[in-house]
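As a warm-up, study this chain.
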Amino acid sequence: MIDLNADLGEGFGRWSLTDDDALLTSVTSANVACGFHAGDPSTMRRVCELAAAGGVRIGAQVSYRDLAGFGRRSMDVPAEDLAAEVAYQIGALEIFARAAGSAVAYVKPHGALYNRCVRDSVQAAAVVDGIRMAGTPLPVLGLPGSELHSAAAAVGLPVVNEAFADRGYRPDGTLVPRGEPGDVLTDDGQVVARSLAIAEGKDVAASDGSPLRLSARSLCLHGDTPDAARLARRIRDELTGAGITVRAFA
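Now compare it with the structure written out below.
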């Protein structure tokens, strides 16, 4: 059994990046942009309504305040400010989730904040403080062994291990940074094969070719990957065909 998640609602005003309607027919969890790297109130409301109608779990994809850089630029935000901004984003999405008859069910950092919280204990603790400030002990979706998961577990928040279908991995299990060779997998066959291997508990190839075992309860496909909706459907069909149940993590 494995969850399939994707980043959704990554648009702003008249600009749109993700095919939310199509992706929501395949994924079981939706990481909804909360306005800081992408997303606006109308987009957040619409995605929550579509997700709730389709039985898809809604997650808050929190980020640095970086619309211009799509949240992919690392920032040195004071811990108190970052905690408040995380709580703010969760609260904003919760309004639209509840209006749609659902609720925010988990939290996942986006982009640079996600990567920063793998090793930065101060920023990771600030994200966790923000989640607690929002008022509900939400599960935290993130990289296994990260500082984010350590900080969450230390205060009793559930942690959910995540792996990426379409990102390159270093031998130590961290992601190849954006902009470096092998950062994003673009071959459909390779992405599907990696998805199956992860779901079946088999090794995948790290960036140097060495075998790497990724333990995950949730599998992520980036919504801004070219033809992401078609690829998400193919991944789900392949997983189901292999006898793997695709559903939201408990």
